[in-house]
Amino acid sequence: MISPVDLALGAAVLLVAGLSLVPRSRLVVTMGFLALGVLVTMVWLRLDSLDVALAEAGIGTGLLSGLMVWLAVRSPEPPGAGGMEPSPRLPWLRPAVGVVCGAVLTVVTAAVWLRVEDRLPAWGGPVEEQLPDTGVEHGITGVLLAFRAYDTLLESAILMLTAAAVMALSSTNLHQAAAPMPPVPLALPWATRLLVPALVLLGLWLLFAGSRDSGGAFQSGAVLAAALILMRTSHIDLRGLSTYLLRPALVVGVVVFILAGLVGPMLGLPWLSWDPDWAFAAVLTVEVLLTTGIAAGLYMLFLTLENPEGVR
Amino acid sequence: MLELGFDAITWYLVISTAVLMFGMVRLLLVRDLVARLVALDVTGLGVLLMLVALAARSSDETGAQAAETGAAGPDAVLQALVITGLVIAVAFTGLGAVLIRRIEGAKDTEGSDSGEESPSTAGERDRDD
Amino acid sequence: MTELVEFSLGALVLLPLLAAAVVMLIGHTARRVLGVVTAVVTAGFTVPVVATVADGDAPELVLGGFTAPLGITLRGDGLAAVFLAGTALIAVVLTVFAALVPAATGEHLTPSGWRPGHPGFWPLWLGCWAGLNGVYVSGDLFNLYVGLELVGLTAVALVALGGRKSWDPALRYLFIAVLGSLLFLTGVGLLAAVTGTLDIAQARAVLEEVEDPTAGLLALSLMTVGLGMKIALVPMHRWLVPAHSAAPAVVSPILSGLVIKAGLVILLRVWLWAVPLVAEAIWLAWLLGALGAIAVLVGSVLALRQDRLKPLVAYSTIAQIGYWFLAFPLLVTEHDDAGAAPGAYSAIVALAVGHMVAKGGLFAAAGYLKLRFGTDEIARLRGAGAQYPALILAMGACAVGLIGLPVSLGFAGKWQLATAAVGAQQWWVVVVIAAGTLLAAGYLLRGIAPLLLQAPQESDHQLPDTGDETAPAAAGSKTRAEGAGELLILLLGVATIGTGFLGSWIYDLLGVGLW
């Protein structure tokens, strides 16, 4: 019943997960995580989840692993943290306990999974029925921006507040935006000039395709953030953008989302209702601005990784 | 439905459980901060993998239920939830990464150039100690 | 009226969130003004919800008009109303306090060095409040997860506002908080697989028909462990003390008073609403009860051994958390004998809300003293009471609530818990309550009494070695705003006593929209 491809892919996931958990070197661990991201993307493609695979490729593997590898490269050896050696006396104890606990928990949970009599989601029908009311044709976009728009709103708020948090951990003038970047090979600026327009196009395509096909605000925001990071790394001056545009870009998605949600109560409907007449316009506006916020938030995470003056 | 036996989805469910559990155990046992952050993300990936495998059931089972609803691809709602979870994981990891950078940046210079700090910082530190 | 109530249910979450976004764009002074305005208006929106619940209705808001299982439903039932009201009270007081005493919000880095006060407090705190309200009124399992993450992220970031010393505790908190919510999410996934829905009420209906309880039990265990981490139940409590004591003065009361309650509310939602297990989960309930008893005793003893004020108050939080779990075995004896469960449920809520008010006040007072004197070592704070009579009065009133003396909500809760325990013939619960009460009296006396003693030398507690503007000001030089801030803390002390009269009202309120 199970194909060899799935068997091999699953085994590879386990192996690479081990690679990103066990080794002592920070660089190896983060590289392992990057590889795990690629493998998981493939699993998701196998499971026909193109949207999730795109999101994982963009946000998870692309930005997240990039962030981690960057972190590992910038601070390879933790000063005074004593590496990863947990206990000097019984060095085998912790790993052994870990393996045993992990194995027991896995067996117990998997056993439950295997005997669970599961039932298909009850929302399958309603999604199909009510999708036309939202003005979008792609199910996942419909769920994200209409059916469960409230979750998406809170989630964008989480990203916005993460940006607020890392800004709070920086100097007030966000001086990292002006800090010099490490030198890069000469080829990179050239590559950037070629890549950035392509990335921007890809981002916009993902954004506008989202209403009909796979893609959407999150995938698109990740690609646009990647373009910004690439430009910054290859010494292109983004100071004006960082100083004046980044904050408004961060909040505009959440603000407009809430204001659009407020239109419903004004018309006597519940919060976050889109009337079928203008649902598509509302969803598209919100999605475009959310993309801006997501790209700005992800770029901010990258920007603030550099320590400010007083800390360093 | 009980004779799920050993199809691809069950296989991935088991894999995801293993990834989740070992990631969690590693997170609790390891001391290096970056390794903990990676372990945290591996755990998160395990959970999300589990949710996607669940979402795939509706396309995999060509049973009467799926045909009735006419649902073609994997379940849209669960996929949307996974995207949400992914973004949340990135947000937390970003904050964690910045915190690690600050902590180690502060440790780096604890002894060497604390003389350059403004008096208010020095005072703050003395009082906290 | 219905429309207003529905609007309020949504606005309770979305208004603070909107303000959190807007506040990121404006200057420091404007942030304080907008923060206070938002706090007052948000508290205003709790009134119609609580009033409706008090009338015996449980209002619902179907977001976007998409009914469950497709959409998300917000529900304002008794549990939500009690926590909304309690949170509104604490939140308004603390917001005004933070606006009056900006130094209480941490310290921020400027190009020329560290400065007292942190403008980053405002978006994070308003976002945190939105998340708290979102958790209280949510009727959807996945939405609970998102709300929990919103609260967790902002809480971690709020801890980190305290400068260098707070980054390490903040990161530890982050690891535990995320792990806890991932376990919760695993449980949600399992429930979704078994029930085919994410709506709490619908999931319960399906689970009641399912014969095999294994999946429900596993989901319940995973969620309980995850939430136990976030609430800091005893073996998982290690993160709490450094995080809560390293946090800035106004953040500690937010964390101890409000943030851990979000975990508790979700735990109650899961145990009492989502997963209707009685017979199968009894061992888990007993385990929680045992851990709760250990928490009460160990937390109190550790609090007794502290010689700094903020860690002492933080350990007292760990002990108080124990009481909530102590009631869990009584919560699930519903079927075999009569009447213990509602009493135990009401006891948990009364104790939690009483703790919310009292700990909010006590932590704010401790943080304020640390701010003024530059230290929270109890020995060096000797005699501080003479200069801050209002503060000492507030701390005394909060101590009354935490010890559980009559008339406070703490007393009402302990009384209900003891009554339920006697009804179920669980005498050990009564013994733990008595021991915990004595120990609480001991550690709070140890923390507060030295403040009232004569100072060894006048001005010895003033910090000798600093001359900068963050140095503790002499008592005479405190600004009028800071004087008003002290009165606000006193208000929390008064509220600790005052809410004691609401015990039976809360009991009635909790009956609305019960599972």
Automatic annotation (TrEMBL), chain A:
The UniProt keyword set, sorted, is: Cell membrane, Membrane, Transmembrane, Transmembrane helix
* Na+/H+ antiporter MnhB subunit-related protein domain mapped to chain residues: 191-275
> GO CC terms for this protein?
plasma membrane
Q: How does it sit in the membrane?
A: Multi-pass membrane protein
Q: Where in the cell is it found?
A: Cell membrane
- Any single Pfam family the record assigns to this protein: MbhD
Q: Sorted alphabetically, which InterPro entries does this protein's record hold?
A: CPA3_antiporter_subunitB (IPR050622), MnhB (IPR007182), MrpA_C/MbhD (IPR025383)
The text of the family note is: Belongs to the CPA3 antiporters (TC 2.A.63) subunit B family.
This one is known as DUF4040 domain-containing protein
Indicate where this protein is primarily found. membrane
Where is each MrpA C-terminal/MbhD domain found? 12-76
From TrEMBL, chain B:
Could you list the residue ranges that cross the membrane? 12-30, 37-56, 76-100
Task: Identify the domain of life.
Answer: Bacteria
Q: Which UniProt keywords apply?
A: Membrane, Transmembrane, Transmembrane helix
Residue ranges of region Disordered? 106-129
Q: Where is the protein found, in the record's own terms?
A: Membrane
Q: Name one GO cellular component term.
A: membrane
What InterPro entries does its record include?
Answer: NUOK/Mnh_C1-like (IPR039428)
> Chief localization class?
membrane
Query: What's its membrane topology?
Result: Multi-pass membrane protein
The reply on keyword Cell inner membrane is: no
Q: What is this protein called?
A: Uncharacterized protein
From TrEMBL, chain C:
Residues forming the NADH:quinone oxidoreductase/Mrp antiporter transmembrane domain are 138-438
Return the GO cellular component terms, semicolon-separated: plasma membrane
Q: Which UniProt keywords apply?
A: Cell membrane, Membrane, Transmembrane, Transmembrane helix
One Pfam entry name? Proton_antipo_M
InterPro entries in UniProt: CPA3_Na-H_Antiporter_D, ND/Mrp_TM
Compartments where located = Cell membrane; Membrane
Q: Which parts of the chain span the membrane according to its record? A: 6-26, 33-54, 79-101, 121-138, 144-161, 173-194, 214-234, 246-271, 283-305, 312-332, 344-369, 390-413, 425-445, 487-507
Q: How does it sit in the membrane?
A: Multi-pass membrane protein
- Chief subcellular site? membrane
**Family that this chain belongs to:** Belongs to the CPA3 antiporters (TC 2.A.63) subunit D family.
What's the name of the protein? Oxidoreductase
**Which species is listed as the source?**
Nesterenkonia sedimenti
